Fold this protein.
Amino acid sequence: MNRKIVDRLTETLAALCVAAAVITLTVSARVPAAEGSLAGLRIQTVSDQDMERFQTLLQEARRLADTNRDPEPVLQELKGSFPGRHEVWALTARYSESEGRDGDALAAYARAVRLQPEYLDKKSGLFLGKRIKVLTERVMGELDAAKSSQELDSAGKKLLKTAYFLKRRLAGGCE
Amino acid sequence: MRRPSLETVLIIGSGLSLGALGAALALWGNPSNSGICISCFMENLAGSLGLHQNLRMAYFRPELAGFVAGALLSALLGREIRPRSGGYPLLVFVLGFFLIVGSSVFMGCPIKMMLRLGAGDMTAGAGLLGLAGGVWVGIRYYRAGLDLGVPKQGVGVFQGMLVPLLFPLLLVLSVGGLLLSGTTGPAAHRAPFVIALGAGVVIGVLAQRSRFCVTGSFSNLFLARDMSLMRGLIVLFVAALAVNVSAGIFHFGILDQPGSHPDHIWNFMSMGLVGFASVLAGGCPFRQLVLSSEGSVDASMAVLGMIAGGGLVHQWGIASTSAGPTPFGKAAVLLGFAFCFGIVRFYRKA
């Protein structure tokens, strides 16, 4: 091939790669963590002042959940202000599970695990692996049944993806 | 029947040892499907040196010291210590960095890709196609006049041996408890020390003698229709498959495989980057370790780039997780391609 054509083609490809990288980063920066995908989630660093508020809200939500009162308003506030804190999602998952909302619990556990992998680590004090495994199997069973009878809507498909994420994490690997 | 040549035996021995021991090391304690993974090991090494803050990925794997010590021993016995340099140290360092970027977005180096395929993980299929594609692009550029020169000898034994001797030193420091070592996560999943080190030495010796390289297998095929190294790659896959099936851990599937993500586009792209960068750097991540043991300063620079990469992919959120590739990972892969295209643009001769 003509040398000039190869050079122009190579330059164009390099420029396209740089442009695509910039676009990828710009788009990801505009999507708030609460709405973004699991993959884009990052652990949220919190200032000392905010940490005090975070701890107060978290304790309040735990107290309400433990005394069979509705912690949902406090949890909503926590999720809005601290979407990158795993404790929020772990507590949301526990509460949703106790309320029988398995789908919500699974999605919240997935976020908690994404932010803090130690929830699936037997050697960690945070270990919730068995509980998450049982829930994942149960939800997947329901979703598979819905899938085979072609009743799986878009929310169900999204939840199935989340369930598979947890299955991959439960299977182990180097990450 | 014609007796196979010594070269063929060594190549098959390399593939066999990498496949069988790679699968077996995961059975003996290393993370699932990660019995041998140079990029994971480099990330672990970087963590043990404090180059990233993810303690779950901080552990100096004895296998690394084994690979280097085995290859060094073999090169010494075969009088193949040849300190040499091609004169582009910074380029090779950055290529080493991008080798780890591509591998961490895929979640494994080319050897782990084959081990994952041997365990039934079909997400690695996109990676295999990407790797072959990346090597093909690199080879096309070589055919179109890319010339990074021939490494020149005479750079001194001291310079050539700095990195190979670093690994035994790190092993001593690790045994002495002077390196960071995680107690949870992948860092806590370890094959027994002696077995890990011994397996590394055996593989290092065979890989040095045979010149086995995963990306080299594709390069030789595309460049000269030479199947010799490809035989080793096929044996690697078959050996891993045999161990996994016989141990009852073969699990065919796409969506629920350990240490993987089903984003096929980025599996393809990231391994494409590894293939392209490997052609430019002169070998896959594993081959860089072996070449550095022979005194190649370029390979040593690539290894240092890989260690730096091992730290930065965690610090900058580039490494993928089971949830998929991150935006930073995708951007880093694209920038890696831009860098590789930049090299071929500026080092192509008529």
User: Anything to note?
Assistant: Chain B touches chain A through 50 residues (CB under 8 Å). The radius of gyration of chain B is 18 Å.
